[in-house]
Amino acid sequence: MIKISKTAVIMGLLSVFGITAAVSAAEIVRTGEGRNFYNNIFIPAGAETLYLSGSGASQQADGSWGDMEQQTINTFSKFQETLESQGWSLEDIIQVRAFAVSGPGGELDFSGFNAGYQQFFGTDENPMKPVRSFVQIAGLVVDGWLIEIEIRAARVPD
Predict the structure, then answer these.
(1) Considering the entire predicted model, what is its pTM?
(2) Looking at the domain 46-155, which fold is it?
(3) How far apart, in whole angstroms, are the C-alpha atoms of residue 83 and residue 149?
(4) What is the pLDDT of residue 4?
């Protein structure tokens, strides 16, 4: 029987994609960088994970929910507060899954989502970018929400 280390498996997977990197068994590896996200993130065994889901915007003082950009900013701000209260950060987010609906005019505002999203990822303050999915759906549970977001965070313990 031949035993193969986890590091060797990760290195093999990376080479399949034509990626070379010095990988330690205890680091998160991000590859396939696009403008707003990575295509692949490899999480080593023993990493801690945190999942936050079903989060959307908070109603504003005037009773409105805001447009897509405002709702995206509001939602990621709440995620940031929750993460930081638990000793995590936005840099630990490895996956974003967004469910979106069309606005009152019938148009899906993907550029508004990206404008809000780009304030949190790929910035000087947080250069990290997660893998990402954006899915248009027929409706959300909360009337007035345009976006509902789930995140997954991971970090390697010190």
Answers:
(1) 0.80
(2) 60s Ribosomal Protein L30; Chain: A; (3.30.1330)
(3) 14
(4) 42
Supply the DSSP string of 110-155, one letter for each residue. Answer: HHHHHHHHTTTSSSSS-----EEEEEE-S--SSTT-SEEEEEEEEE
Q: What DSSP assignment string belongs to 17-74?
A: TT------TTS-EEEEE-SS-EEEEE--TT-EEEEEEEE-PPPPTTS----HHHHHHH
73-130: pLDDT as tens digits: 999 999 999 999 999 999 999 999 999 999 888 999 999 999 999 999 999 999 999 9
- Domain-wise residue ranges, the chain: 46-155
